[in-house]
């Protein structure tokens, strides 16, 4: 087996955390409400955001538009307290199960997923 095969096998079947960042150095992070499993938001994490999240227990992300680390709720107070982190099979995406201190969406909605698509029209999603 080549080193790549060994890394793939270790990443997919082993117990070591070996995050697989994309070409931009990012992982996709899906945030779920810990008590309801409802989706709250999707964001991206770089190595610094992941480390800050694991160290503090508060969700941190990487803003692609601003090119910087941001702590969710830093200005609004609507922090996301991480209860657990789930890692997908090839370790390039995470699910953060969190308790939200307030609305998760910058619009003030509880979740960023507050609309549903029917045909080509968006309608309010029923909670």
From TrEMBL:
InterPro entries: PRib_AMP_CycHydrolase_dom, PRib_AMP_CycHydrolase_sf. GO terms for biological process: L-histidine biosynthetic process. Its EC number is 3.5.4.19, 3.6.1.31. Pfam families: PRA-CH. Pathway: Amino-acid biosynthesis; L-histidine biosynthesis; L-histidine from 5-phospho-alpha-D-ribose 1-diphosphate: step 3/9; Amino-acid biosynthesis; L-histidine biosynthesis; L-histidine from 5-phospho-alpha-D-ribose 1-diphosphate: step 2/9. It comes from the Bacteria. The keyword Amino-acid biosynthesis applies. It catalyses: 1-(5-phospho-beta-D-ribosyl)-5'-AMP + H2O = 1-(5-phospho-beta-D-ribosyl)-5-[(5-phospho-beta-D-ribosylamino)methylideneamino]imidazole-4-carboxamide; 1-(5-phospho-beta-D-ribosyl)-ATP + H2O = 1-(5-phospho-beta-D-ribosyl)-5'-AMP + diphosphate + H(+). Residues 41-114 form the Phosphoribosyl-AMP cyclohydrolase domain. Coiled coil: none annotated. In the C-terminal section; belongs to the PRA-PH family. In the N-terminal section; belongs to the PRA-CH family. This is Histidine biosynthesis bifunctional protein HisIE.
């Amino acid at each position: 087996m080549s080193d790549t095969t060994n890394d793939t096998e270790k990443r997919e079947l082993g117990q070591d955390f070996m995050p697989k960042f994309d070409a931009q150095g990012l992982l996709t992070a899906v945030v779920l409400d810990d008590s309801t499993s409802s989706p709250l938001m999707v964001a991206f994490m770089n190595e610094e955001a992941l480390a800050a999240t694991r160290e503090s227990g508060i969700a941190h992300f990487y803003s692609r538009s601003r090119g910087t680390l941001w702590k969710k709720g830093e200005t609004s107070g609507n922090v996301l307290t991480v209860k657990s982190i789930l890692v997908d099979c090839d370790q390039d995406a995470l699910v953060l199960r969190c308790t939200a201190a307030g609305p998760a969406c910058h619009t003030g909605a509880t979740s960023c997923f507050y609309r549903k698509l029917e045909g080509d029209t968006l309608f309010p999603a029923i909670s």
